[in-house]
Design brief:
Blueprint lengths: L21 H11 L3 E6 L2 E7 H8 L11 H4 L13 H11 L3 E6 L2 E7 H7 L5 H7 L5
Antiparallel strand pairs: 1-2, 3-4
Helix pairs in contact: 5-6
Length: 139
Amino acid sequence: MGKSVKDAMTSEVKTATPSQSLTDAAKLMKQEDVGSVPVVDGNRLVGVLTDRDIVVRGIADGRDPRATTLGDVCSRNLTTLSPDDQLETAVRLIREHAIRRLPVVRRGRAVGILTMGDLAMQEGGDSALADVSAAPPNV
């Protein structure tokens, strides 16, 4: 049997709430050096906001990033994984849905995130994507 999602996922994930602003989320992404933030209501995952969402659904539409909430622009139709799913399942979902990041959920609660970079690192780290994923940020 292959590796499971919990073997590759990032488990220390910062979250945001639907009422927070795009500016708040952008600051969190910068601080954490990430491109997405799970959006939670209490402990339940209700959406995911990506850096692309901020640009395309927020700024490009002329929205004020200080007044626009994550609930206004985050993706809510989510494809998720369980920590116990196999990595092969993650690869299949990424291909089928053309997505780069998959929230990892246990009983509705966000417990991590799995990215294409995480998967590349699991493949032995011998690819361009793994090299980019392992490199320090170029601020």
